[in-house]
Amino acid sequence: MFVFIIRRFLYAIPIALAVAAVCFSLVHLAPGDPLTAIIPADAPAEVVIAIQQAYGMDRPLIVQFGSWIQRALQGDLGVSVATGRPVMGDIALALSNTLLLAFAAALLGFFGGILLGGLAAIYNGTWIDKLATALAITGVSIPHYWLGLLLVIIFSVQLDWLPSMGAGPGGSSDWRLDWAHLRHLVLPAVTMCFIPMGIVTRTVRATVSEILNSEFVTALYARGLRGRRIALHVAKNAAPTVLSVMGLQFGYLLGGSILVETVFSWPGTGYLLNTAIFQRDIPLLQGIILVLAMFFVGLNLLVDVLQTLMDPRIKRG
Amino acid sequence: MTSMTSPGAKENFALAAETAAVSRGYWTTVWTRLVRDPVSVGCALVLLLMVLIAVFAPWLAPYDPSQGTMLKRLSPIGTEGHWLGTDELGRDMLSRLMHGGQMSLLMGLMPVFIAFLVGTSLGLIAGFFGGWINSLIMRTTDVFFAFPAVLLAIAISGALGAGFVNAIISLTLVFIPPIARVAESVTTSVRNLDFVEAARASGAGNFTIIRVHVLGNVLGPVFIYATSLVSVCMILAAGLSFLGLGVRPPVPEWGLMLNTLRQSIYIQPWISVLPGLMIFITSLCFNLLSDGLRSAMDIKR
Amino acid sequence: MSALLRVQDLKKYFPVGKDLLGRPTQVVQAVDGVSFSVEKGRTLGIVGESGCGKSTTARLLMHLIEPDEGRISIRGKEFGRIGGRHPVAELRRQMQMVFQDSYASLNPRLTIEDSIAFGPQIHGVSEREARQQARDLLDKVGLNPNIFIRRYPHELSGGQRQRVNIARALAIKPEIVILDEAVSALDKSVQAQVLNLLADLKKEFGLTYLFISHDLNVVQYISDDVMVMYLGQVVESGPVEQLYQNPSHPYTRALLSSVPSQTPHQRKQHKVLEGDPPNPIAPPSGCRFHPRCELARPICAARQPDNVRVSGAHQAACFALPDSSGYSEYIQLQEVCA
């Protein structure tokens, strides 16, 4: 098992490198020169070359990739083509907002999903089960950006209960734990919790009902165990599967928040990515995707290792 | 009975008496089970209706979807002549929703279809041949698995630029790795079954074994998985348009309509809900149909 | 009479485990130097506990697994993938195999007819002719073609499916059929029917069988010769009556005494075979059976015993055999020293 964990760690290194290569090559997918955004169309040839040299874009690709990686490891992701500011600072701020939103949504979604899925498994076949299943399938079928819009229409436009835009009053992008800021968090977090809730509900329902139908639970009942003691056994056996699904879902929340952030003008990575795309700000685009993808790689690693540690059956050699 | 004395005669006889001589193939059985499920049939009908409306929109729609008068802009739902109101440029919403189905359905189905072809082939090759071919293909898909799907689609679209073709390319790239992974694991398990060994023992070559013995057993499970992706693809495709990365105006498309109508939620909130509702209904139907298909194909031996 | 099938020194080691760089850390010596020969028209039974390499031997013979070492020849023609040998495809026309799991060895998506007609078509028989052959063969294995030809595997019972598998193997018109635990998964009554069918088919088509099983009674019933395997090696072989009446290797004796006798008053006090077979990853040194053997002496751990002739074609690999020089020499040596 130990060997497996070490191998899993080692395996993450080439994956991370390959992920970085994909992010880097995104620039070259783009039609035209990545510098078109700042080079005037009528600029003379020598000016164009000078700018290219300044950004290091005249060197061979592999050299550019090497120095990009080297600088990225030191926390330098380059300078925004649009603003001229270092990309890292903007990304760090945006990432903290995205993480906040993802945590809030994950908390709601996981709690709701475990509750619904557990109830559905215990009351298998009753109306509770049907309701939970219906909610789960709605959760995975609903376009979440549309759900966000719907919530804005109901709670902001019609009822005027909650704000619809930004992370805080007056367009503030610094998070503070007070009522004014919490109010801004409610709608985007509720919008985003639906997908993980649906998926966790499905997983918990399937896993728990399988465990409840297994012979060892029958044996526990036969030994006279009841209620809470049984629940403990079930939880221990369901945990590895459910945890790994939750880990992946948290990763999807980080990467999938772009649409919801756009709906609510939430100053996170998604919103920043959107800006980068439309200003064709390639260093910013690369940087955001790299940071998010690395988060996801790390999360996958963590989930795998946790699962190996928790599930004695997995002895991958 | 040809030989009543042969030891199997009794077995023959019992089976002949118990079932009629008509024997049904796997897919016939799946079909019968599917049409007995009311939810699946209902969803299939709704989807069929949507496809028909989208295809025949030019003849069915009451108005030209790209013509409108600013005088009538943002009329509410129920306005005479415009049942579902008009949009921010005064174009008839009903006509636009009918035409919008063309692009939205196409963008939901086409990437999954192409990815199904490519991903299944890759997975088949990786799973059947194993070894370094498997490592090469599966480790490459691992890299794409390191990106959340939404992020990958938006990143590729963002880099390629907006447009229908680019959106299709990016969505296809997103769905190839998961399909390849499923196809690979199914192929690996089929490859190790005795009938593949038996086929090899009868002297068949790799290509024949794949065509006759592996493909038929792999396509089913991979197909179910691919159908479950259609709903995700619909939502993602509309999402790309919603961000302005999909089709470009004035082409009617549900995601794009949602984007432009978003500006008007303070004036006519319920009109802006309509395109999203269409995406939701379609995606829900695809999900339920996929679930129905999955349980219909789950035949115990 | 010269041998139809001759196997010499067959070997297969499987790598297992992975270190940090994914290199194999250990090998399983699944089949380690197996040699035997079968004469035309006879049935060779191969017995042993699970994991002894019986099935691997079968798969090596068919080249479903590539052997590491060894020669396989039919009628003196050597087959294999090494240059100069006859191609594996030709080998597979002369030798066919029936697997244990009757369900897994039929493609669930094909009808019985398609499954049987598949092999001949590979070898160039026209589709029409292959289908006619399939009908004839179904009849031969005791299944009414009119009823079964268009059925799917899941609609058949285990016994019926195994009959189909036999028909499928025969469709290629092989001389040798390997039956790898072919009746082990069947009920006793069905087993008897299939065994009788196999005997009939052997007579009709002049077949030669390799009958692999862990069931000693079945092997005794169907075989002419028997070969006992332990941890990838042959420990004893010989004609069935001699081997069953005079088991000479301690392992064979233990195996046979664990079979309940058909007649109660003949039951003796059993010499029970204790423990599981050792791990084939790290097989014991010398004679591989010595850790479980009641006759074991120090020499058994030190050297591998050679084959010793018991009588006629009956031979066993054990130091304790009367004319086995090593064991007695060693005992004498010890006595001298003492």
From TrEMBL, chain A:
The cross-references to CDD domains, in alphabetical order and at most eight, read:
TM_PBP2 (cd06261)
Q: Which domain of life is it from?
A: Bacteria
ABC transmembrane type-1 domain: residues covered: 95-307
Which Pfam families does the record cross-reference, listed alphabetically?
BPD_transp_1, BPD_transp_1_N
What GO cellular component is one of the record's annotations?
A: plasma membrane
User: Which PANTHER family does its entry note?
Assistant: DIPEPTIDE TRANSPORT SYSTEM PERMEASE PROTEIN DPPB-RELATED
This one is known as Dipeptide transport system permease protein DppB
**Organism, scientific name:** Nitrincola lacisaponensis
UniProtKB/TrEMBL annotation, chain B:
Q: Where are the transmembrane segments?
A: 39-63, 105-133, 145-176, 222-247, 267-289
SUPFAM superfamilies, from UniProt?
Answer: MetI-like (SSF161098)
An annotated GO cellular component of this protein is: plasma membrane
Q: Which InterPro entries match?
A: BP-dependent_transpt_permease, MetI-like, MetI-like_sf, OppC_N
Signal sequence range: none
The ABC transmembrane type-1 domain covers which part of the protein? Answer: 101-290
> What positions belong to coiled-coil segments?
none
Q: How is the protein disposed in the membrane?
A: Multi-pass membrane protein
The keyword Transmembrane belongs to this UniProt entry's keyword annotation:
yes
Write out the similarity annotation: Belongs to the binding-protein-dependent transport system permease family.
Question: What Pfam families does the record tag this protein with?
Answer: BPD_transp_1, OppC_N
Listed GO biological process terms: transmembrane transport
Q: Does the keyword Secreted apply?
A: no
Q: Where in the cell is it found?
A: Cell membrane
Q: Which PANTHER family match?
A: OLIGOPEPTIDE TRANSPORT SYSTEM PERMEASE PROTEIN APPC, PEPTIDE ABC TRANSPORTER PERMEASE PROTEIN
Keyword annotations: Cell membrane, Membrane, Transmembrane, Transmembrane helix, Transport
- Protein name as catalogued: Dipeptide transport system permease protein DppC
UniProtKB/TrEMBL annotation, chain C:
Q: Which UniProt key words apply to this protein?
A: ATP-binding, Cell inner membrane, Cell membrane, Hydrolase, Membrane, Nucleotide-binding, Repeat, Translocase, Transport
Q: Which CDD domains match?
A: ABC_NikE_OppD_transporters
Task: Check the record and name the InterPro entries matching this protein.
Answer: AAA+_ATPase, ABC_transp_ATP-bind, ABC_transporter-like_ATP-bd, ABC_transporter-like_CS, Oligopep_ABC_C, P-loop_NTPase
Single Gene Ontology MF annotation: ATP binding
Q: Write out the annotated subcellular location.
A: Cell inner membrane; Membrane
Ranges annotated as spanning the membrane: none
Q: What is its EC number?
A: 7.4.2.10
Q: Does the keyword Nucleotide-binding apply?
A: yes
List the membrane topology term(s): Peripheral membrane protein
Q: Which domain of life is it from?
A: Bacteria
Q: Name one GO cellular component term.
A: plasma membrane
Chemical reaction(s) catalysed: glutathione(out) + ATP + H2O = glutathione(in) + ADP + phosphate + H(+)
List the Gene3D superfamilies.
P-loop containing nucleotide triphosphate hydrolases
Which GO BP terms sit in this record?
peptide transport; transmembrane transport
Q: Which residues form the ABC transporter domain?
A: 5-256
Which N-terminal residues, if any, form the signal peptide? none
**Subunit note:** The complex is composed of two ATP-binding proteins (GsiA), two transmembrane proteins (GsiC and GsiD) and a solute-binding protein (GsiB).
The task this protein performs is described as: Part of the ABC transporter complex GsiABCD involved in glutathione import. Responsible for energy coupling to the transport system.
In which family does this protein belong, per the annotation? Belongs to the ABC transporter superfamily. Glutathione importer (TC 3.A.1.5.11) family.
PANTHER family, alphabetically? GLUTATHIONE IMPORT ATP-BINDING PROTEIN GSIA, TRANSPORT ATP-BINDING PROTEIN
Name it. Answer: Glutathione import ATP-binding protein GsiA
Q: Which organism is it from?
A: Nitrincola lacisaponensis
